[in-house]
Amino acid sequence: MSATRLLVLGVVRMYGRAHGYQVRRELLSWSADQWANVQPGSIYHALKRLAAEGLLEQVEIEQGKGPDRLAYTLTGEGEQEFQRDLRQRITNVEGSSSNAFGFSAALVFITALPRGLAVELLEYRLTQLEGQRANVAAVLDKGSEWGQPAHVNELYRLWLAHCDADLEWTRELIGRLGAGEYVMADDPAHEFGAAHPS
């Protein structure tokens, strides 16, 4: 599933019922076109595709001004897919750019998870990142012995710095969630994106 699909499912879930323009406006207000490569056309395509797959339901033709007449709601299957994909993207640390988009998409919906589960998934991610860092450090340490040009080590140093930053940030987020920051799905008065429980 692409990051766009997760974002579209998440925004429709957040609103309860949304039309394409609402989804587009919300995602662009988050600058998702920059950090998740979400383009307006891909949002409308995802809405139609998700509806065809039974993950969204077209609920009514709205009367009013503007081009968006169809509204969508999340189906039971859509909720299951949203939760499955959200969890998978939080724990996946593969280095591709599409995975970075996917993690960013999951991060903006992390409050849709119960606090304990979010921490557990991030702890798993932390373990994966530590393994990734160890692999990069080994390549940096042994690269010249394996016949790589010395200047290529700069790439590995950059990767190591990225790993260290990811590890530090992940530990800090685990700490913030553990300290009760942000309103999570199992907190009373859950409201998407609220900074602290009421």
From TrEMBL:
Pfam families: PadR. Gene3D superfamilies: Winged helix-like DNA-binding domain superfamily/Winged helix DNA-binding domain (1.10.10.10). It comes from Prauserella rugosa. The keyword DNA-binding applies. The keyword tRNA processing does not apply. This is DNA-binding PadR family transcriptional regulator. Keywords: DNA-binding. InterPro entries: Metal_resp_DNA-bind_regulator, Tscrpt_reg_PadR_N, WH-like_DNA-bd_sf, WH_DNA-bd_sf. GO terms for molecular function: DNA binding. PANTHER family: PADR-FAMILY TRANSCRIPTIONAL REGULATOR, TRANSCRIPTIONAL REGULATOR RV3488. Residues 8-83 form the Transcription regulator PadR N-terminal domain. It comes from the Bacteria.
